[in-house]
Design goal:
It contains 5 helices and 16 strands. By secondary structure, it is α/β, with parallel strands linked by helices. The chain has 2 domains: 52 residues; 207 residues, Vaccinia Virus protein VP39 (Rossmann fold). The strands form 3 sheets. A 9-stranded mixed β-sheet has the order 6-7-16-15-8-9-11-10-12. A 5-stranded antiparallel β-sheet has the order 1-2-3-4-5. Helix 3 crosses helix 4. It starts with 8 loop residues before the first strand and ends in a 7-residue tail after the last helix.
């Protein structure tokens, strides 16, 4: 079944399309592999009312495109990528001012109150995204029931307090376990990198994940883009990336980061 959707009902119809039902939503596949999100009617029958998906980029340059919206509706319209590199919600409440309870040396940063991390993304969606890419690296993949990973990537944060000691990157690289140490301990961060999102990853960690991909990935997808670190890393490595973010506040931050050009030292 194209795209990795599992546990779905399938219906072939006279119009030449295949419909896959999942949680009241249908993914519509053409013979060219494109898809659109559609809703079932109240009776649960395959009477479809297609969503109108706004595919106008929020930001675009020669390397990075940012879409503001629901990645479940946007990704099926994008085709295939070399690498899925993303950090989906873990369902642990990092979006709900949790950070304000941390820190004794300085006032913790207030990232605002949102609802994007109140629950995990449905596993069928994660599997679908994996199916659109040749390789995948998913930070926090241990929170999801994904296939076995031969060699996870481990980011050692060198942290203290109630922060996790590190994070695991599930991947299908098929290589040995690798560890990268990069301090990210509240207000103490290597290279004094700005932090604009409660679950933001360092650029060096994301770049490391890209570099370890066994295929020289040129096109990268991040459907949970946050403040845009994946895009910034991809751009710095002369690769292209498509980012999708639901919260407009973070789309704006990501766009500003993409607009910053690396200055030559020569």
């Amino acid at each position: 079944m194209q795209g990795g959707i599992c546990d779905t009902k399938r219906k072939n119809t006279s119009d030449g399309f295949n419909y896959h039902q999942r949680s009241g939503r249908v993914l519509l596949y053409t013979d060219r592999g494109m898809a659109a999100g559609c809703l079932l009617d109240g009776g649960g029958d395959f009477n479809l009312y297609c969503d109108v998906v706004n595919m106008k980029p929020y930001y675009q340059d020669s390397a990075v495109t940012i879409y503001h919206g629901d990645c479940r509706e946007i990704v099926p319209n994008l085709g295939r990528f070399d690498l899925l590199l993303t950090d989906p919600p873990y369902g642990i409440g990092e979006c709900s001012k949790k950070n304000e309870s941390r820190g004794n040396l300085a006032s913790p940063k207030n990232y605002g109150f949102f609802n994007w991390d109140t629950k995990k993304i449905e596993i069928e969606t994660i599997l679908f995204f994996i199916g659109t890419c040749k390789y995948s690296l998913i930070w926090g993949g241990n929170y999801y029931n994904l296939p076995p990973c031969v060699g996870p990537l481990i980011w050692d944060k060198e942290s203290s307090g109630d922060f996790a000691d590190g994070e695991m990157g599930w991947n299908n690289y098929g290589s040995a376990l690798r560890i990268k140490r990069h301090m990210w301990n509240g207000m103490i961060r290597k290279n004094n990198e700005d932090r604009n999102h409660p679950t933001q990853k360092p650029i060096d960690v994301i770049s490391w994940g890209i570099s370890l991909c066994p295929f020289n990935a040129q096109t990268i997808l991040d459907p949970f883009a946050g403040s845009g670190t994946t895009g910034r890393a991809a751009k710095d490595l002369n690769k292209t990336a498509v980012l999708i973010e639901k919260e407009e506040q973070y789309c704006e931050i990501a766009a500003l980061r993409m607009a910053q050009e690396v200055l030559s030292l020569s």
